[in-house]
Amino acid sequence: MTKPYSHAVKEKPVKFMPKQQNYETSLQYEGMVLKKENAAKTVEQLRRKYAR
Questions:
Q1: pLDDT at residue 33 is higher than 70
Q2: Which of 8, 3, 10, 42 has its CA nearest to residue 24?
Q3: Share of the chain above pLDDT 90, in %
Q4: What does the pLDDT read at residue 39?
Q5: Closest by alpha carbon to 46, among 26, 31, 29?
Q6: HEC profile for the chain?
Q7: Cβ proximity of 50 and 27 under 8 Å
Q8: What is the pLDDT of residues 2-19, one digit of tens each?
């Protein structure tokens, strides 16, 4: 027997979140570095800080 409301339940897509070390390496390839004040922050905190 099938579930009556299976079509109503949707799984949330997983957002891609890079690891902090990978993010810093990527910045270095672009010729940028994190400021010392931002070094301890997570990628999510930095996104919120610089969101436009």
A1: yes
A2: 42
A3: 0
A4: 79
A5: 26
A6: CCCCCCCCCCCCCCCCCCCHHHHHHHHHHCCCCCCHHHCCCCHHHHHHHHCC
A7: no
A8: 666 666 667 778 777 778
Of the candidates 31, 28, 27, which has an alpha carbon nearest to the alpha carbon of residue 50? 27
Cβ atoms within 10 Å, residue 43: 14
When pLDDT is averaged across residues 25-49 and rounded to a whole number, the result is 84
What is the C-alpha to C-alpha distance for residues 40 and 25, in angstroms, rounded to an integer? 15
C-alpha 42: how far from chain center = 9
- Residue in the structure block whose two tokens are 């997570």: 42
Mean pLDDT of the chain: 78
